[in-house]
Every structure is written in C-alpha cells, then in structure tokens.
Amino acid sequence: MRGSVAEPIDNRLFVLILQHPQEKKHALATAGLTCAALKRAELVIGLSWPNLSRALGRRANAKRWAVLYLGSARPAALGIRREIIAVDRRSEPAADQEAMLRGLEGVVLLDGSWGEAKTLWWRNPWLLKLRRLVLNPQHHSRLGSLRREPRREALSTLEAAALVLKHLDGGIEAEDALLGGLDHLIAEARPSRRRAQERVSR
C-alpha cells in the first residue's frame, strides 16, 4: 500500500482509525492506505478501548477531538449546505459551526461495514465526549457498485478522511493524494471482480 504514495502528507489534524476486526479481511478496505498516505495517522484494530488516550497510545484531550457521527442525523435534512456539519447530542446542527470545528487536534474514524461501525460506536462510550461531525459529501462514493453503502452520504474511510482534511486542515494536497490512491485500488479491483463474475456465470 505505501508504495502507491510517494511521500506521506504532512497533515496537522491527526487521524485515528478504529477498525473492526472483520474489516481487515475485506479486499477493498481503505484504512491501511489512508494511514500510509498521512504522516499523522494511526490505525488500531479491536472492538473497545477504555478511553481516547488508550486507543491513541498517548495522552489526549477528548474535548479537542471529533468523531464522525453514526447517528440518525440525515445531512440532507439538516438544511446546511456544507460538506462537514457539526451536530449536537440531539443530532441537530450546532448553533456555532465554526466554533465547533475550530481548534481540533484530531478526528476519529470508525472503519468497517455500517453494522460493524455501529458496534464500535456503542462499545466505546467515551466517543460521546468527542465533538460530533456528519459528512454531507457532494458526490457519491467512488467505490460505487464495488462496495454498496446504506446511505447516499456514506463514504469509504479513505474518502471520509480526505473530506475531513480538505475542510478542517486545508488539505487539498492530502485529498488529491488519498483519492489518487483510492483510484489505483479501484483500478486493481475491477479486473478481479470481472473475472470472478465470469467464473460464476459459466
């Protein structure tokens, strides 16, 4: 994976990926590629950790971290035309969006299928202490039919990281590098998927 990225991007906002143990078996898992592309990123595999610091492997102030929220909030219904939306505990848009997005040290991404990500959410109650972000992307996931998602706004972990860094870290360079790596992964996966379908149809 690291070979597809010439030099890790020097991102300011730290990206912590909590990966469900089953996700690493998926051929289109993107967490490893995401971490390979970023200088400040960490991938940890498991189901639960007692707090943010233990998951991260160092001391951290939860008040200065955010998590991509998996609740019932539907971005299209929130009435805010931006790709990153901060929400409160009632899944309503935060009154002061800029204040909620300012001063963040890091963001937590939950990596797995929709069901696996929800398992990680419920098994780690310390995530409730973090600021909550909802993605409202302008485009569907690049994975398309290669890996179907349950909601229009659902993205791969790599695409989610690219969007977060684009808006919260001024990371246009990071976005380009991450999405370029994803395009390479997709190009490699399509012939394999086609051959598998051909074997089934025979």
Which terms would index this structure?
6 helices; 15% strand; disordered N terminus; alpha/beta; six-stranded mixed β-sheet; single chain; 6 strands; 202 residues; disordered C terminus
How do the helices and strands line up, and which of them pair or pack?
Layout: E1 14-19, H1 31-37, E2 41-45, H2 52-56, E3 65-68, E4 84-87, H3 97-101, E5 106-111, H4 114-123, E6 131-135, H5 157-168, H6 172-201
Parallel strand pairs: 1-2, 1-5, 3-5, 3-6
Antiparallel strand pairs: 4-6
Instruction: Strand order, main sheet: write it out.
Output: 2-1-5-3-6-4
- How do the SSEs run, as a string of H and E? EHEHEEHEHEHH
The share of residues in helices is 25-40%
Strand count: 6
The percent range for strand residues is 5-15%
Q: What is the straight-line distance between the termini?
A: 33 Å
Mean pLDDT: 80
What is the count of helical runs? 6
Outline type: globular
Major sheet: 6 strands, mixed
Q: Whole-number radius of gyration?
A: 17 Å
Q: Which segments are poorly predicted (pLDDT under 50) over 5 or more consecutive residues? A: 1-5, 193-201
Question: How many domain modules?
Answer: 1
Secondary structure class reads alpha/beta
